Amino acid sequence: MTRQAVKLVLIVDDDADSAFLLGAHLERHRLQVHASHSLADGKAQLRKLEPSVVLCDKYLGDGEGLDLFADGRPAFVRMALLLSGEETASNELARALFDGQHRKPIDARSIGDAVRAQFDWNEG
Amino acid sequence: MAAQRVLVIEDEAPGHAWIATALEPLSDRYDCDRAADPVSLDALLAHQRFDCILLDSLSEHFDAAALLPRIHRQQPNAAVIVVSDGHDERAAIAMLKAGALDYLATDDLDANRLERAIHDATTLHEARRTAERADAAMREAASKLGFIAASTPRILAARRSEEIAAIAAATVLPLLEATGVRVVIDKDGVDHTRGEGQVPAGATDGTTHADGISARTRGLFARDGARIGAITAVGTTCEAAEDIRDNLLLQLCQIVSAALENAWLMREKETAIALREDVLAVVSHDLRGPLNNLALALGLLDQCEPRIRESLAYNVAHMARLVDDLIDLARIDNGRFELTRNRHALLGLCDRVLRSFAPQARTRGITLLIEPRHDPSIVCDAHRLAQVLSNLVSNALKFTPAGGTVRLGVHASEDGATLEVIDSGPGIKREDRSRIFGRYWSKDSRRAGLGLGLFIAKSIVDAHSGVIGCDDAPGGGARFWVTLPKAPE
Hints:
The complex is a heterodimer of chains A (124) and B (489).
Chain A: H1 3-6, E1 8-12, H2 16-27, E2 32-36, H3 39-49, E3 53-57, E4 59-60, E5 63-64, E6 79-84, H4 90-95, E7 100-103, H5 108-123
Parallel strand pairs in A: 1-2, 1-3, 3-6, 6-7
Antiparallel strand pairs in A: 4-5
Chain B: E1 4-9, H1 18-23, E2 30-35, H2 38-47, E3 52-56, H3 64-74, E4 79-84, H4 89-97, E5 102-105, H5 111-157, H6 161-177, E6 181-187, E7 190-191, E8 206-210, E9 213-221, E10 227-236, H7 239-299, H8 306-333, E11 342-345, H9 346-364, E12 367-372, E13 377-380, H10 382-399, E14 405-412, E15 416-422, H11 453-463, E16 467-472, E17 478-485
Parallel strand pairs in B: 1-2, 1-3, 3-4, 4-5, 12-14
Antiparallel strand pairs in B: 6-7, 6-10, 8-9, 9-10, 11-13, 14-15, 15-17, 16-17
């Protein structure tokens, strides 16, 4: 796994402002961020960029974020978090191959810490 | 006018035919038959109908006292006059008690006297029969009205017009159809009693007759006088029955009118509530996006004074809580409030909630304590239960002065568990305790908030089949408690 790929975070959110602001937070932690604004583009970028971390909004314009890993979750994804305004049942998250969730409004610090922890582990 | 039919029951022996002799001058006014022996009597009683029966109580062949009940049974429309020698008053009274309408002595028996007696007896008998028929009709109508009255609560409680028509039809049809009537309830020209056919076009209040069939229509009217339908009773023509039907129809129309209007008002209300809750849910959901972006942007404001950042952060979090409460309220009202249940240890959950309030408590100089007697595990929605505890602890901190204490207790019982939050604030007035769990209640109208927190908390506890309440804390302050069963019922 290359250093560039290890530090890549894919944000999938059809709200461009939300994706930009969250990305701005993560970039302060010297992480590379790519934003997709649809489920279809998210799936395409997932295959193309091989991100280590995926942050995906639950409700997207062309489908549900829970379907992002409908064809299977690639091994290079170390952590996948669902972003949503409502609580999602843990068994539903597990079925969709997500590791956890962050409720909106997002606590940028806590999500930043969670993402950095993944990369620190990898670098270790 | 047809001659009245008269039956004379007496012996034929000469000197004993008193009645026949007296009747002879009246032969053109009465159509007479004579029974001089039991055989002829049997045949006449069985196959003829008489208006008046003259019975000789001195006859050797007939026992008048024994004959009277049989005559009443076989000839209910006939007036009975008994003729005797006039000297036995006791026998006369016995005959009158047995059903004879008059008692004549042979000494008084002549054509005039007899004609007068027959006229009076038949008139009296007809009057009694009419009174009996009227009484029976009144009793029947009363029982039918009583039947309708008993069904009225079901009709009024029905929520759909089809349901109202069905209950009304099921209630009244068996009664009216016994008199040969078919009930048609007209709403929009459709026969809701049978689900088929059409009510006669242009049906208006009134009665129509054709070929021995009558159709009595009465309108259904709302409270403002607007006509909302009609009920038509169709059946064979019968004057007495029409009175009964008309009365029943009127009663039924009044009940069905009220029920229809209630059902429509209820439907309008339910539609309005559903629309309001849908709008609420959509608006609240749409507010989350901008709130989220505000929170993220806030985190990027490095150049901002800490005090301003704290204020912005607090207000964004507060708005987020308000939006969450509105969404929860919409879900509760729409019946879409669902729980995700698993077994959880309550002590750990309570500890996490208290820790989240630790910074706020420190800032305000309030001591937070957890006082566990046990560590029960129950099946619950941990996220929602934490929401309940957070609401109670938040309220406790709000109303506890600096230097005070907020304690959280955890107890296990045989049936489940009890959580309590005790503060050292001013407490809850007794008259407020029944109202504080209602929606939009707020102790202090100047404080920000929708007043939904305790209402939502109660809804969550209710969904867990638990109970929430409040009372005075020992030593002052308020004590809020929540009891939860081990497993949901």
